[in-house]
Write a structure and sequence with these properties.
The structure is a single chain. By secondary structure, this protein is mostly beta strands. It has five helices and 44 strands. The strands form ten sheets. Strands 9, 31, 32, 33, 34 and 35 form a six-stranded antiparallel beta sheet that branches. The longest helix has 23 residues. The protein starts with a helix and ends with a strand.
Length: 659
């Protein structure tokens, strides 16, 4: 026995490490059996699929009953994102038309809608009030006037979500504003809303859809989706949506969507997008409305040199910053607003040549000035700076002059507290190559009306204009000369959005809200083209294939393999992509590997971009948190997911399936 004890003592230097290694290996064997091979990444249903399920459910419920005009079927918020809207459904033996009245708090707040004559009635109800018992009246339509009251429907609505709207001040009359609404699209974290003449919220969405609310000929809206595809605010697609919140079409756009879109006479769409090849916000495409195919592309770098006409906000990657588009059928021209060059450009779509440029000619080559710039005439003329929302009207080119710096050169800059934002109408004489300022509003309001970003104008008719200054900000007693999302000081920032309407030279509408709104749209909930149809949504296009990395990675040996908790790594499978979230240092080298019979490598960029024009702060999150998207385009099957950080590979023990 002593012999064996002595032998053990003499060989402890070998025995102890051997025991440690064997124990460790045994532990990993046990861990391997206990640990599931991999788990499936959780999935999130796409909103259009979710809405299709909702619609199928309420149609099944409707088909179970016998609903007629005295006993209609009613559902509030049928698509789960428009809580102040509802749907009435019933059948009649004969063709009949009805007048629907959504009762206001006072009679001036009543909203009426006459339906088309049909036997199968699907009537959208818009304009309910939040947090109250609403009354909807259904009348027979007696040659355009209310006939017999056939049904009164009482609807209790829920309160608005917290933060939907903040501190409204409004000054107008029901005689002027009638039963219209002012739609406001948020620039930050609030929600889309529609206000009546009294400042009451009569419409809202509980999804933070983005960018301009563009009204289509069929009464629907075009809105940017709520799905980010690339920082800081480029979204995956456009939605065609009605005030019930029903999405009829989704146009997926390979380069993403930003800022603005316009409908052409043939119902095709001119869309602002990107190619992400060194620059952004300088591509325009035409989408076929019936197929979603890109039928035309315009690259602004082929029209204008990037380094010419630079404003003080110019940046290499965002040299033009196209923030609006409009179309003129008479001349077959589009007009674009290049914020970072302080110019508005009109392009002839028949010849693909520039018609003219509107803006301060300083900092441009004389040859360009001679060819494209216009000569000012008349008194009190001023150029625009950092403009938005350039549109064609019957009276001329109407635009929102933000007034940033009021000079191309920093030595002549005007400070924010001495600046102003204004709506301005320019009349162009292309033959004489002249430009005249015939209207402006905002200068007289001074710096209280100054917005260094976002904002828009709307032409409501002859001498009837809307001017929306949506991004006024103050930090302490200092008026901000930068977009609020870019402010990095320690002071509390006070936000304000101010909207005016002028009619025949008089202020007829004044709205103030303590928040920032990208654009305003004065419109009606019901129009002569109001339509509602059930049926599945149509999805056009697909997301662009996510670029793969083909470099040979140098992988260090990693004994443990598991992902460190500090990375807070998570995955989510959407209908058409894998979403990767994690927290990493900006100097980290990060890759995602999808492993099947072959590996697909994706490098996650971590560098910050110094944005000079954060038009939407909706998608801003933790500066260390990174989100990356791997689109399913050209991927199929099951893939194990691995993470590589600074040459160390980790098994996430998760897998994803692409259909």
């Amino acid at each position: 026995m002593n012999k064996y004890i002595k032998l053990i003592k003499e060989n402890l230097i070998i025995i102890i490490p051997t025991i440690i290694v064997l124990s460790t290996l045994l532990g990993f064997v046990i861990f391997g059996f206990l640990q599931p091979r991999t788990t499936l990444v959780p999935t999130e249903i796409h909103i259009v699929d979710f809405q299709e399920q909702l619609e199928n459910d309420f149609i099944i419920e409707y088909d179970k009953g016998m609903y007629e005009k005295g006993n209609p079927f009613f559902i509030l918020n049928p698509y789960q994102i428009a809580p102040l809207s509802g749907l009435i459904m019933f059948e009649t033996v004969e063709l009949e038309s009805f007048i629907i009245v959504i009762n206001g708090i006072e009679v001036e707040g009543d909203i009426e809608y006459a339906t088309i004559a049909t036997k199968s009635h699907k009537i959208p109800v818009y304009g309910l009030y939040p947090d109250m018992l609403n009354t909807i009246e259904v009348y027979e339509n007696d040659l355009g006037v209310k006939g017999v009251l056939v049904k009164e429907i009482l609807v209790q609505t829920e309160p608005l979500e917290e933060g939907t709207v903040k501190d409204i001040i409004i000054d107008t009359t029901s005689e002027y504003f009638e039963d219209d609404i002012m739609i406001l699209m948020p620039a930050l974290q609030s929600l889309p809303i529609g206000l009546d003449y009294n400042g009451d919220v009569r419409w809202t969405l509980t999804k933070n859809f983005s960018w301009a609310p563009v009204l289509l000929d069929n009464g629907h809206l075009l809105l940017g989706s709520d799905r980010l595809m690339s920082d800081p605010y480029y979204v995956t697609s456009l939605y065609e949506i009605d005030y019930l919140g029903k999405i009829y079409k989704e146009y997926k756009i390979p380069g993403g969507y930003h800022h603005d879109v316009v409908e052409l006479p043939n119902n095709n769409l001119l869309v602002l997008t990107n190619e992400f090849e060194g620059t952004v916000e300088d591509i325009v495409i035409e989408l076929d409305h019936s197929t979603g195919e890109i039928v035309n592309t315009w690259d602004l770098k082929k029209f204008i040199e990037e380094t010419q006409g630079m404003s003080q906000m110019w940046a290499t990657y965002d040299w033009f910053h196209n923030n609006s588009i409009d179309y003129d059928e008479a001349t077959n021209s589009m007009i674009l607003s290049g914020r970072h060059q302080d110019i508005v450009v009109s392009i002839d779509l028949s010849t693909n040549r520039i018609n003219y440029m509107i803006g301060d000619p300083n900092n441009w080559p004389q040859t360009i000035v001679d060819r494209f710039f216009l000569t000012p005439i008349g008194e009190d003329f001023e150029w625009q700076y950092g403009q938005h929302s350039a549109i064609y009207t019957d009276e001329g080119i109407f635009l929102l002059d933000n007034g940033n710096n009021k000079s191309k050169f920093s030595e002549f800059s005007v400070s924010a507290d001495n600046s102003y934002t204004r709506g301005v109408m320019y009349v162009i004489d292309e033959t004489e190559r002249t430009i005249e300022q015939t209207f402006q509003f905002g200068k007289e309001l001074g710096s209280e009306f100054y917005s260094p970003y976002i904002s828009n104008v709307q032409y409501l008719g002859p001498n009837n204009y809307m001017i929306h200054s949506g991004g006024h900000g103050e930090a302490g007693n200092e008026i901000l000369n930068e977009p609020a999302p870019l402010y990095d000081g320690d002071l509390e920032v006070n936000l304000k959005s101010v909207t005016y309407e002028m009619d025949a030279g008089f202020v007829k509408y004044h709205l103030e809200i303590n928040d920032h709104y990208y654009r305003a749209l004065h419109t009606s909930l019901y129009t002569n083209s109001t339509t509602f149809n059930t049926g599945p949504p149509i999805i056009f296009g697909q997301l662009e294939e996510t670029p793969k990395n083909y470099d040979q990675l140098q992988i260090d040996f990693n004994f443990l393999e598991t992902v460190p908790l500090k990375y807070n790594l998570s995955f989510l499978k959407e209908a058409d992509r894998l979403v990767v979230n994690g927290q990493f240092d900006r100097e980290d080298e990060i890759y995602i590997i999808l492993r099947n019979t072959i590996d697909f490598q994706y490098r996650i960029p971590t560098s910050n971009t110094a944005y000079t024009a954060m038009c939407l702060g909706t998608f801003i999150g933790d500066s260390r948190e990174l989100t990356y998207y791997i689109n399913e385009t050209n991927l199929e099957g099951k893939y194990e997911i691995y993470l590589v950080v600074n040459n160390t590979e980790y098994n996430t023990y998760q897998h994803v399936v692409f259909d």
